Amino acid sequence: MSSVPSVRPPGRPPAATRDQVLDTALYHYLRGRRVDVQAIAAELGLGRTTIYRWFGSREALIGEVLFLASEPLLRDARAGAKGRGARALLDTFDRFNRSLADAPALLRFVESERDTALRIITSGAGTLQPRIVAAIQEVIDEEVRAGHYDPPVDTSTLAYAIVRLAEAFLFNDAVAGMRGDVDRLREVEAALLAVPLPKSRR
């Protein structure tokens, strides 16, 4: 069967896709720009209503962008983790948390839009937290399936606890001196995973 080359009919070029909106929003975010729906719509030749129809809200769009930005950090953390079982999990989560704590775009976003950022990051009803929890659960499940880890509770609950701990230590400054303290976060996660650590000299 011979292939027939596709010929684009004359007239208006095809509209941008949902994925192109995500890519453009991610591009703006990683360069420290505000994720502005109107600006992205104008850049791609779309109406704002189209973007809102696809994503529901600006916060939902940003939630997807944050997940896209965090995926490679978790993947790299998992690839670089040492040991197996609980120790591999602790090393994975510690590497991931330190990457998030040092991510320039995330720091800029939290500093410039703190209330919005905290809503997006910590809301169980949003698009970000459930996907991060699912990704963390998959990391835990990999160790369970390999026979290297016997979790103290079901893995969905454990993953949720790990994520909420990270949110509290990395982004929530309600407790004095806790925000950004990745060393203390590692100690608490070690206790949760039952990984013995040398006593802290704090």
Quick synopsis:
This protein has 202 residues and is mainly alpha-helical. The protein has helices at residues 18-30, 37-44, 48-55, 58-80, 86-101, 104-112, 114-122, 128-145, 155-171, 182-193. It has two domains: 15-56; 58-193, Tetracycline Repressor, domain 2.
Would you mind describing this structure in some detail?
66% of the residues lie in helices and 0% in strands. The protein contains ten helices and no strands. By secondary structure, the protein is mainly α. The protein has two domains: 42 residues; 136 residues, Tetracycline Repressor, domain 2 (Orthogonal Bundle), CATH 1.10.357. The N terminus is likely disordered.
CATH topology of the largest domain: Tetracycline Repressor, domain 2
Structural class: mainly alpha
Task: Note the beta-strand portion.
Answer: under 5%
Distance from first to last alpha carbon = 74 Å
Total count of domains:
2
Spatial extent as radius of gyration: 20 Å
Largest sheet: none
What does the overall shape look like? elongated
> Number of helical runs?
10
- Under the CATH scheme, which class of the largest domain? Mainly Alpha
- What is the arithmetic mean of pLDDT? 89
Helix content bin: 55-70%
Uncertain parts: 1-13
Order of helices and strands: HHHHHHHHHH
Number of strands: 0
In the CATH hierarchy, what is the architecture of the largest domain at level 2?
Orthogonal Bundle
